[in-house]
Write a structure and sequence with these properties.
This protein has one domain (42-257). It is 88% helix and 0% strand. The protein is built from 9 helices and no strands. The protein has helices spanning 2-31, 33-37, 40-78, 86-124, 127-133, 138-177, 181-191, 194-221, 227-257. α6 packs across α8 (194-221). The longest helix has 40 residues, at 138-177. The protein is elongated. The N and C termini lie far apart (50 Å).
Length: 260
């Protein structure tokens, strides 16, 4: 019994200690953001690395998701004779929910793992230690520019995801099934609210970008300097980011739309 209590205490102590280290890392990183903003070339390169290299999988996934929403939405709405509302259904589903969430999950799997592996390999190759020996702050030189780039790139990717998804729903609903094109777009124009729907979707994508980018950078910076340590850190990035995104999505949806 005493041994079990000791194990539970040690586990709680480890988790609390890890939470403290993570919070300290986050606030130190935020304090270095003003310094990173002065290095626009680094941020530009990281936006290209994070955003451009993630663009293809984002757009292709959005297109096929739009196809699926068009098919499923039409068959659901046709039961109630509301086929003309297909455009609004597709747009609201993507802008409010699926666009930010799916982009965050794909971003974690593509860009998040790349950030973790890159920084983890820099630590394994003692590049981080070399920077510290030369009085170069790795938080300001390596971590903060990538954080800023991720927070900028992911909301843009989320907007592109929603736009391409709506086009996919339009193609299936209007071109393949035969829903009236004017009704499709007029329902979107009349029913989609700029602040309640699009604005809240942008807020979600920004929150997800902060969370996923922070997790990726933290896991890479704290990775053990071995190939196995980097591999485990990359896995933790995907798992932690996915669970965090889904949990934050529930909380944000409850706050934004819980009142009806």
């Amino acid at each position: 019994m005493i041994a079990a209590i000791e194990l539970i205490g040690a586990w709680c102590n480890f988790r609390v200690r890890g939470l403290g280290v993570g919070c300290r890392f986050f606030f130190v990183m935020l304090s270095k953001v003003p310094v990173a903003l002065k290095r626009r070339g680094l941020i530009r390169d990281q936006i290209h690395f994070i955003g451009n290299y993630s663009l293809l999988i984002i757009l292709v996934s959005a297109l096929f998701l739009g196809f699926v929403l068009g098919l499923q939405g039409y068959h659901t709405l046709s039961t109630y004779g509301s086929e003309e509302s297909l455009g609004l259904l597709v747009a609201v589903s993507l802008v409010r929910e699926l666009g930010p969430v799916m982009t965050a999950l794909l971003y974690a799997g593509r860009a998040g793992t790349s950030l973790t592996a890159e920084i983890g390999l820099m630590r394994a190759g003692e590049q981080i230690a070399a920077m510290e020996m030369m009085a170069v702050d790795p938080m300001a030189r390596v971590v903060a520019p990538r954080f800023v780039a991720g927070v900028i790139a992911m909301p843009i990717l989320a907007l592109l995801f929603s736009a391409v998804g709506i086009l996919g729903g339009w193609f299936v609903g209007v071109k393949l099934i035969g829903v009236d094109g004017g009704a499709f777009w007029s329902q979107i124009q009349g029913g989609l609210n700029l602040f309640r729907d699009i604005g809240n979707g942008i807020v979600k994508s920004i929150v997800f970008a902060i969370a996923v980018t922070f997790i990726a950078l933290y896991q890479g910076f704290q990775a053990r300097p071995t190939p196995e340590g980097v591999a485990r850190a990359t896995t933790r990035t995907v798992v932690s980011s996915s669970l965090t995104v889904l949990g934050l999505d529930f909380l944000l949806t409850a706050v934004m739309f819980g009142g009806g």
